[in-house]
Amino acid sequence: MKSTFIALGLAALIEQSYAFPAIAEEAVRIAAANAPEQKRQLVSPGFNAGLQYVSNKGAHKFVAPSKTDLRGPCPGLNAMANHNYIPHNGVATIDQFIKGTNYVFGMGLDLATFLATYGAVIDGDLTSWSIGGPPPASLTNGLGLLSQPQGISGSHNKYESDASPTRGDLYEYGNDYLLQMSQFKDLYNLQKGKTDAQSNYNLPLLTDFRAYRFQQSINDNPYFFNGPFTGVAVQPAAYTFIYRFMANHSAEYPEGRLSKSVLKSFFSITGPDNALKYVSRFALLVSS
Ligand code: HEM
Ligand SMILES: *[C@@H]1O[C@H](CO)[C@@H](O)[C@H](O)[C@H]1NC(C)=O
Q: What is the pLDDT of residue 287?
């Protein structure tokens, strides 16, 4: 009974997602990124240093998460919490997610509204949700939900998907939020031999990387599942987000250039090319 109810709700949401203009817009961008070079038409957002500056100083300086702060599979949301653009504990309201992603990353308000609301319904308590695992009861509104909110880490195939860029497949690695160094290196090495100033993890490169990761999941994960929403909208978007939201915009590169050092910083990787280290911010484990 309960699962039928949830399935119907999910089907309705998925239908809505196709009707949602921002998702359609994102799909067009993904298709454009997949098109041959000469056909690709990217609309330049232009560059304005004053308007586009986002502070990482003072109240917004990096503060590593404590043991009780929630962090999860999304590097964009993790960074926003680490820099206090959403609550440092990792649980935020729909409104905080919308305003934060728009201000920090320039995410369109319609796409942000869809993603944040979907999170609250699927992974949260209808008004707020956790960017990591299940939040403590003190951080939820206790509206009497059918089940405890799981956060996006606990939303495999509902929000979290297989064949993610750097996160492992859940049934292959036992978690869906830790970075897998082999996957990160496969991405990182696509600019092998380039200096930091020469490197750029752009859309064509990320499109190739997605095709590679997709085949890898099919080959290595016997439970691989490409869900109707997670596999079609979330997972492809996660690849384009890497360039579109992490790239450094400048007068020279108004559409952005994503260098090795900035890529590493977003994914919590330190060290030189031949000795990369992942500083996991989850249990403050260090692995290489
Ligand atoms: C409210 C807005 C957002 C929501 C609800 C959201 C949610 C998610 C979820 C559920 C995943 C896991 C998907 C998977 O399993 O592949 C994910 C991954 C990801 N997100 Fe977000 N996200 C949001 C905003 C952002 C922003 C602003 C960025 C900017 C950098 C971003 C970048 C990424 C990337 C790169 C991944 C893939 C991580 C990896 O596997 O390496 N997201 N996000
Ligand atoms: C971003 O680009 C500008 C202009 O090239 C440069 O001065 C700045 O150091 C870059 N920021 C990072 C974090 O790489």
A: 40
250 in contact with ligand 2, CB cutoff 6 A: yes
Average pLDDT (26-32) is: 53
Q: Measuring from atom 14 of ligand 2, which residue has the nearest CA?
A: 262
Is 169 within 8 Å of 189 (Cβ atoms)? no
Q: Is 126 in contact with 142 (CB distance < 8 Å)?
A: no
Residue whose C-alpha is closest to residue 173's, from 131, 203, 209, 216: 216
By three-state DSSP, how is residue 244 classified?
Answer: helix
Question: Three-state SS for 136?
Answer: coil
Average confidence (pLDDT) over 224-238 = 93
Q: Which residue has the higher pLDDT, 138 or 115?
A: 115
Q: Which of 245, 262, 256 is nearest to 102 (CA)?
A: 245
Check pocket membership of 56 for ligand 2, CB cut-off 6 A: no
State residue 240 phi and psi, 5-degree precision. -70, -30
One CATH from 3.40.710.10, 1.10.10.10, 2.40.50.320, 1.10.489.10 for 4-278: 1.10.489.10
Amino acid at 232: V
Q: How far is CA 114 from the centre of its chain?
A: 14
Beta-bridged to residue 279, according to DSSP, are 286
Domain coordinates of the chain in residue numbers?
4-278
Lowest mean pLDDT among 92-96, 101-105, 150-154: 150-154
The answer to whether the CB of 258 falls within 8 A of the CB of 242 is: yes
Percent of the chain whose pLDDT exceeds 90:
70
* pLDDT per residue as tens digits for the range 241-261: 999 999 999 999 999 999 999
Q: Which ligand is nearest to the CA of 260?
A: 2
In ligand 1, the atom with minimum distance to the C-alpha of 119 is: 5
pLDDT at 12 over 50: no
